[in-house]
Amino acid sequence: MQATLTILGSGTSMGVPTLGCDCAVCMSLDERDRRTRPSVAVQWQDHVVLIDAGPDFREQALREKLNRIDAVLYTHGHADHILGLDDLRPLSFKAGRIPLYAGPETAEVLSRIFHYTFSKENKYPTKARVELHDLPEILTLNGANFLRVPVQHGDQTISGFRFGNAAYLTDMSDIPDASMALLHGVDVLVLDALRKTPHPSHANVERAIEYIERIKPRIAYFTHISHELGHSEMEAELPPNIRMAYDGLRIPIELA
Asked: If phi over 0 gives left and psi between -120 and 50 gives alpha, with beta otherwise, what is residue 185?
């Protein structure tokens, strides 16, 4: 089943340009160096599944003309991945209740921050019409399977996802051996590569390349990219099978 993986946002929690910074990347005129907070959309037939909805979701959805959302899968509960929940409101008015899938820790954060949305006592008629569900190991949505791939984000275990021949691993510092087995045969890999120097909770370029060499996808894309990496300069250093993701990039994939 043919599908499209759209990079809604390829940046870090602070985005690029970063506020108050006048470095070469933040001042760049290359639109690919303008990176909103990390998120992707998986689109097939008339269906759209989001992985994360951060504070830039509204602008991302307008840019990509996303007029419906079938479900949202959350990787973890950090602000740059969840704060777009309220922007689901107008889409939920059209579609009915949108299911949100999250692990226990992420669900607790969502329920606390968006208490006014999930509280049964709040009868406000225009709150987002969403339903919070546990994230299973394998989730089937409209004929497509989404496999949870646990990865390490520093000392926190969060969720990556495999869907068909593609995988999305944002905010990743390490991939456990058990999860490496889940990535066998992946053709398209999108993974964290924050910067060149090491970071305690994100893969740097060297670490990301090591995992690409082990997983052996046909093509890999760096995401969650900081302002320390310029798009064209970094791509010039990479082999042809590793590219820099950018906001609005559309990648053809196959769903099982």
From this structure: left
